[in-house]
Amino acid sequence: MTCIDRRDLGLLLLRLSTGGVLAAHGAQKLFGWFGGGGIEGTGQAMEAMGYAPGKASATAAGLAEAGGGTLLALGLATPAAGAAAAGAMAGAAAVHVPNGFFAMNGGYEYTASLGLAAAGLAVTGPGRLSLDHLLGHAVNRSWMVPIALGTTAAVTAVVVGLRNQRVRQTREGKQEALFEE
Q1: How many angstroms separate the CA atoms of 70 and 81, rounded?
Q2: How many CB atoms lie within 10 A of CB 160?
Q3: Which of 10, 123, 132, 171 is 20–30 Å from 40 (CA)?
């Protein structure tokens, strides 16, 4: 058995922090924990943001965040877990893009950071302090990385594209009065 090095410890810390935050966000959506809206409340919010149908969107986002986050924290099925979480964060970032970069202005800084950390873990792998390592990397093969990230990128592009189309159509349908009464 080889000695654990600082790279493995660093990956463990990154997995625990990124995965833990993502899992908590997913639990807000799915179960209403930590002050979240649950499926019902999150579904309504998703509809208002242009993601339809709202409940299905809330469920998909919640599962990607909670499931992907938990699997990242455990270091299990790392390519799929990182890709799922990155896709959910890309969908969240799309909502925040009009507000600019910084989170203090409602921008996409936070969601982009979580998504990129998840994608980075999918590419890098979980390190030796992980269930993937313990299980002989049965669900963490090199060929899985481009498939997981490519599939997620394609699905995310379609979902975000449809959302953007809905938002545009909603804006175009609302005309301001030409004259005040």
Answers
A1: 8
A2: 20
A3: 171
Cα dihedral 13/121/124/137 (nearest 10): 90
Residue whose token pair is 């090199």: 142
> Tokens 């792998």 appear where?
125
Model pLDDT for residues 22-72, shown as the tens digit of each residue: 999 999 999 999 999 999 999 999 999 999 999 999 999 999 999 999 999
Whether residue 103 is predicted with pLDDT greater than 70 in this model: the reply is yes
Tell me phi and psi for residue 52, to 5 degrees.
Answer: -130, 145
Length of the chain: 181
**Distance separating alpha carbons of residues 179 and 114, to the nearest angstrom:** 46
The C-alpha atoms of residue 127 and residue 136 are separated, in whole angstroms, by 12
Judged on CB neighbours under 10 Å (0-12, 13-18, 19+), 103 is middle
Helices 38-49 & 54-74 angle (0-180, nearest 10): 110
- Which residues lie closer than 8 Å to 174 by C-beta, 6 or more apart? none
Give the C-alpha separation, 170 to 55, whole Å. 19
Q: CA-to-CA distance for 58 and 63, rounded, in angstroms?
A: 8
pLDDT in tens, 105-163: 999 999 999 999 999 999 999 999 999 999 999 999 999 999 999 999 999 999 999 99
